[in-house]
C-alpha cells in the first residue's frame, strides 16, 4: 500500500526557497522570479452560448468563462478562468484549491442534457512568476508574441512558445511604476529547462529569486 | 517572422502552427462501395498545386484548433483564412477557377 502521496514541486530540487532567503536583502534588480507551485489547474470545455453551462461554471467558481479570446477573468489572489479556445478554458485556483473547485464544477456541471467536460490537470504544470522592470525584455528574448502592454495588457493571456517550451502565459498585473508581472504555466518536465533559461536570460539585468 | 492569423487567437508566429493537408476532402459516404483505386485516390492522391491551394492548418502551440487557409504555394502568401466547415471566399474560388498563380 502506498501512503498518502506527497506533492513535490518540479522545481523543488533547485532550492529556490533557500535562494529567496539569500536574496531577500537584494534590491534594484531588473528581474524577480519565483515559483508558485500547487495551484489548481482545471480544464473545462463547453458551449458558452449554452446558458446552463455558463450558469453552472458561475455557480461553481463564482466566475463566468471569458468569451473574449486571450483574456483571463478573476483576480490572481483568488480563482481565475483563462481562455484557451472557443470552447475551452482553464480554471486556476489558489495553491491546493484544486479539489474543492473540481468538486464544485463536477457537481454543478452534472446536469441532464448539458454537454461539458471537466479535467483536473493540476499536476501537469507549475507556475513560474517573473516580474520587474526588465521582465518583458527577458521573455521577449524567447517569445515571438508582441508583449508590449499596448498589445498584451494586464488581464490578457496566450498559449504560446517561450524558448521552445509551450506555455500558458498571463500578464497578471502592471505595477504603478509600469513594471509588469507575468505568469508562465509550463509542463513540469519542461519547467527546470524553462527556469534555467529564464535565469540565464535575466543575468544581464540582475536577478532576484523572490 | 511569418505571421499566420488564427481565426480564434489572432496573429501568431508561424512556428506555433502545423500544416495539415489539402482541405475539403470529404470522406466517402459508402467506403465499402468503392473500388481499390477509388479508395486509394481518396487516401493518397492530392493536388500538387502551383498557385492558390486550399489547405488545413492547426494552431498547435496555441488553441489547438484546426482551420482552413488559402495559400499561394508559389509565393507563400496566405490569401484567406476561414473556419472549418466553411467554404473559401468567392474571390479565392474565382482565382482558383482562373488558374491564377500569383
Ligand atoms: Zn489559435
What keyword list fits this structure?
heterodimer; A: 210 residues; alpha+beta; Gyrase A, domain 2; Alpha-Beta Plaits; 2 domains; five-stranded antiparallel beta sheet; 5 helices; 11 strands; 25% helix; 33% strand; globular; B: 102 residues; Folate-binding fold; four-stranded antiparallel beta sheet; two-stranded antiparallel ribbon; 2 helices; 18% helix; binds zinc ion
Q: Could you please describe the fold and organization of this structure?
A:
The complex is a heterodimer of chains A (210) and B (102). Chain A has helices spanning 16-23, 51-61, 98-109, 135-140, 188-202, and strands spanning 31-36, 39-46, 72-74, 80-85, 88-95, 116-120, 125-131, 157-162, 165-174, 180-187, 207-209. By secondary structure, chain A is α+β, with helices and mostly antiparallel strands. Chain A has two domains: 10-37 and 124-209, Probable tRNA modification gtpase trme, domain 1 (Gyrase A, domain 2, 2-Layer Sandwich), CATH 3.30.1360.120; 40-122, Alpha-Beta Plaits (2-Layer Sandwich). In chain A, the strands form two sheets. A six-stranded mixed β-sheet of chain A has the order 8-9-10-7-1-11. In chain A, strands 3-4-5-2-6 form a five-stranded antiparallel β-sheet, covered by helices on one side. In chain A, a hairpin with a 2-residue loop joins strand 4 (80-85) and strand 5. In chain A, helix 2 (51-61) packs antiparallel against helix 3. Chain A is globular and about 55 Å long. Chain B has one domain (3-101): Folate-binding fold (2-Layer Sandwich). Chain B is built from two helices and six strands, in the order βββαβββα. In chain B, 19% of the residues are buried. The mean pLDDT of chain B is 94. Classes of the chains: A alpha+beta (210), B alpha+beta (102). The interface between A and B is medium-sized, with 13 and 13 residues.
